[in-house]
């Protein structure tokens, strides 16, 4: 855009007092407790590969033109038979929300581009209440309009966002339109190249939330770093910022206390207690917590535990643990598509429990909040990650800002979940100076936002003969040494050679192997030397276990992966057919032989590390 056009646009925005075109920075903590109206269900949609509903024929966005007219977000209806309108939401097909579009219509399986969604809902806004439209996630770029007015834009396919709509909401019918675009771009997070399906659309819940004018917008209540007897954190109010009393009740722990907000609406929390039953996988105790002010009350269920590193050990509530884990993608293989609700999440976490897990790595991006809450309830520790994956544009400041925003949104959403013990800032990022700078800043950011959890990343290894070397300068900034290794699969070795490898690890910290594994087509049986057979995968796991027992600091593993998952990179017509087959469970939910090999290993480990 030339400078004079930019100036004209600025003037126009100012004159029309258009809000900033991005989603609000902070989202309402525990939004389901504020839900006024569930907006899940069937939404009308239009596929728009040329973005005809967004740009005019000179390729100028309609929503920035002075008349603001012409885009699909107007949801216009023909009122006269001579009138020309080239779209009609009412007579367009529907998609289920939440749900990716790829799994709902065969024509959309490979689609990458724009789809418009529309939902009409009825409400009666009450005076003295504030209203927010909340999205659990839209992949990847979402432009959102209510009653023809643009609320804003959000980028990032896996994090929640919201817009305040108090002044736009009408009594009666309201029209919500979303332009969702899942086009991949080099400078985005993730970048163009991933090993998972680029599921597009409104993939997580949508709701209208309502609050009083001054309300509890955010809070953190977690055990203080290294102190099992102090619940520490804050309560943040939005609205009026005159000092107010906040009451915190945790009846089951005999806690009833108050704190006062400062000029910024923030009240510090520090509660001494000796009465807590600590959260652990064996006893995933969650307390009913209620927070209230003169005008507002909100409730949550929160668990309390400490997690820290001491030498080569990971201590949960002061006791050494071994993380018996598995990696999981946000995909229901039976649909196949993104997980659509708590039932889907429960199916995957139940499989993880059957495997003997006390821990899951939710790869490679923030999973649904429902998944984390379920892990809290079912007793599974969680590694939570942002999609800083492979070859990010390390030198682009906007790319960094985007990664940092996604990390902040993840931490802010899940900071009260005892299950989450590790924030991961990325996966398999290749060594270089700009990458080290980018990743170091992310690590510092995670530590600064939350000093009660561990920060890590899945690093890469290098090999010299039989020596496997972990020597990545990013390791200095991380609390754990975590790396992926594919001995027996990408390293192309004879499986029996695996136990001859030895690991040279530069850092004196607990070691977690974040990935290992190999593909097997469920039901394909052969001898253990035959690639793709269940027997090969089984032998690979057996030899991996022998090999890894040589690492004295080993304190956890998350093999790749619980279930086969769809990936455009996996093209072998017989064995893959667009599926990554490293799952221990097939896309039909059938357990492969290696599932039991790993389960046996975990059963032995569980005896060594009683919880
Ligand atoms: C990896 C990646 C993971 C892939 C996996 C594989 O190292 O982290 O996203 O899916 O390998 O199967 O190659």
Automatic annotation (TrEMBL):
<dbReference type="InterPro" id="IPR013783">
    <property type="entry name" value="Ig-like_fold"/>
</dbReference>
<dbReference type="InterPro" id="IPR008979">
    <property type="entry name" value="Galactose-bd-like_sf"/>
</dbReference>
<dbReference type="InterPro" id="IPR006102">
    <property type="entry name" value="Ig-like_GH2"/>
</dbReference>
<keyword id="KW-0378">Hydrolase</keyword>
<dbReference type="InterPro" id="IPR051913">
    <property type="entry name" value="GH2_Domain-Containing"/>
</dbReference>
<dbReference type="Pfam" id="PF02837">
    <property type="entry name" value="Glyco_hydro_2_N"/>
</dbReference>
<feature type="signal peptide">
    <location>
        <begin position="1"/>
        <end position="23"/>
    </location>
</feature>
<feature type="domain" description="Glycosyl hydrolases family 2 sugar binding">
    <location>
        <begin position="85"/>
        <end position="212"/>
    </location>
</feature>
<protein>
    <submittedName>
        <fullName>Beta-glucuronidase</fullName>
    </submittedName>
</protein>
<dbReference type="GO" id="GO:0004553">
    <property type="term" value="F:hydrolase activity, hydrolyzing O-glycosyl compounds"/>
</dbReference>
<dbReference type="GO" id="GO:0005975">
    <property type="term" value="P:carbohydrate metabolic process"/>
</dbReference>
<feature type="domain" description="Glycoside hydrolase family 2 catalytic">
    <location>
        <begin position="307"/>
        <end position="605"/>
    </location>
</feature>
<dbReference type="InterPro" id="IPR006104">
    <property type="entry name" value="Glyco_hydro_2_N"/>
</dbReference>
<dbReference type="Pfam" id="PF02836">
    <property type="entry name" value="Glyco_hydro_2_C"/>
</dbReference>
<keyword id="KW-0326">Glycosidase</keyword>
<keyword id="KW-0732">Signal</keyword>
<dbReference type="InterPro" id="IPR006101">
    <property type="entry name" value="Glyco_hydro_2"/>
</dbReference>
<dbReference type="InterPro" id="IPR036156">
    <property type="entry name" value="Beta-gal/glucu_dom_sf"/>
</dbReference>
<comment type="similarity">
    <text>Belongs to the glycosyl hydrolase 2 family.</text>
</comment>
<dbReference type="InterPro" id="IPR023232">
    <property type="entry name" value="Glyco_hydro_2_AS"/>
</dbReference>
<feature type="domain" description="Glycoside hydrolase family 2 immunoglobulin-like beta-sandwich">
    <location>
        <begin position="214"/>
        <end position="305"/>
    </location>
</feature>
<dbReference type="InterPro" id="IPR006103">
    <property type="entry name" value="Glyco_hydro_2_cat"/>
</dbReference>
<dbReference type="Pfam" id="PF00703">
    <property type="entry name" value="Glyco_hydro_2"/>
</dbReference>
<dbReference type="InterPro" id="IPR017853">
    <property type="entry name" value="GH"/>
</dbReference>
């Amino acid at each position: 855009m030339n400078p004079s056009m930019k100036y004209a646009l600025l003037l126009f925005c100012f004159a029309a007092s258009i809000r900033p075109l991005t989603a609000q920075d902070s989202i309402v903590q525990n939004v389901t407790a504020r839900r006024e109206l569930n907006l899940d269900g069937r939404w009308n949609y239009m596929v728009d590969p040329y973005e005809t509903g967004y740009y005019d024929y000179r390729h100028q966005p309609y929503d920035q033109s002075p008349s603001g007219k012409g885009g699909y977000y107007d949801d216009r209806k023909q009122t006269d038979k001579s009138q020309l309108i080239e779209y009609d939401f009412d007579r367009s097909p529907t998609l289920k929300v939440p749900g990716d579009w790829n799994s709902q219509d065969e024509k959309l399986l490979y689609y990458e581009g724009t789809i418009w969604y529309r939902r009409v809902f009825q409400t009666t806004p009450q005076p003295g209440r504030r209203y927010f439209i909340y999205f659990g996630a839209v992949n990847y770029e979402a432009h959102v309009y209510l009653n023809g007015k643009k609320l804003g834009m959000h980028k990032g396919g896996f994090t929640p966002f919201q817009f305040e709509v108090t002044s736009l909401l009408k009594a009666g019918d309201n029209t919500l339109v979303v332009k969702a675009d899942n086009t991949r771009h080099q400078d985005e997070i993730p970048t163009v190249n991933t090993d998972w399906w680029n599921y597009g659309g409104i993939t997580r819940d949508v709701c209208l939330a309502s609050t009083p004018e001054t309300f509890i917008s955010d809070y953190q209540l977690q055990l203080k770093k290294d102190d099992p007897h102090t619940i520490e954190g804050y309560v943040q109010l939005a609205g009026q910022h005159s000092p107010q009393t906040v009451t915190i009740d945790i009846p089951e722990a005999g806690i009833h206390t108050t704190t006062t907000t400062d000029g910024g609406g923030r009240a510090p929390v520090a509660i001494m207690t000796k009465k807590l039953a600590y959260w652990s996988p064996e006893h995933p105790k969650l307390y009913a917590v209620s927070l209230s002010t003169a005008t507002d009350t909100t409730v949550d269920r929160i668990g309390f535990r400490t997690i820290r590193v001491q030498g080569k050990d990971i201590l949960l509530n002061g006791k050494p643990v071994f993380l018996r884990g598995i990696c999981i993608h946000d995909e229901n293989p039976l649909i196949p598509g993104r997980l659509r609700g708590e039932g889907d999440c429960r199916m995957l976490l139940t499989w993880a429990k059957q495997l003997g897990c006390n821990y899951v790595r939710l790869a490679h991006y923030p999973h649904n909040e429902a998944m984390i809450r379920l892990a809290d309830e079912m007793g599974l520790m969680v590694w939570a990650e942002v999609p800083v994956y492979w070859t990010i544009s390390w030198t682009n400041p906007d790319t960094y800002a985007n990664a940092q925003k996604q990390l902040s949104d993840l931490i802010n959403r899940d900071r009260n979940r005892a299950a989450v013990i590790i924030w991961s800032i990325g996966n398999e990022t290749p060594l270089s100076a700009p990458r080290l700078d980018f990743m170091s800043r992310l690590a510092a950011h995670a530590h600064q936002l939350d000093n009660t959890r561990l920060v890590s990343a899945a690093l890469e290894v290098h090999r010299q003969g039989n020596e496997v070397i972990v020597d990545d300068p990013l390791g200095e900034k991380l609390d754990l040494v975590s790396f992926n290794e594919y001995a027996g699969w990408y390293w192309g070795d004879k499986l029996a050679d695996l136990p001859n490898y030895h690991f040279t690890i530069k850092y004196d910290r607990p070691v977690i192997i974040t990935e290992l594994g190999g593909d097997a087509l469920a039901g394909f049986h052969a001898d253990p030397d035959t690639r793709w057979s269940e027997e090969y995968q089984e032998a690979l796991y057996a030899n991996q276990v022998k090999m890894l027992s040589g690492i004295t600091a080993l304190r956890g593993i998350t093999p790749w992966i619980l279930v086969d998952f769809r990936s455009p990179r996996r093209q072998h017509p017989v064995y893959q057919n667009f599926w990554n087959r490293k799952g221990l469970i097939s896309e039909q939910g059938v357990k492969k032989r290696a599932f039991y090999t790993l389960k046996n290993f975990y059963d032995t480990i569980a005896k060594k590390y009683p919880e």
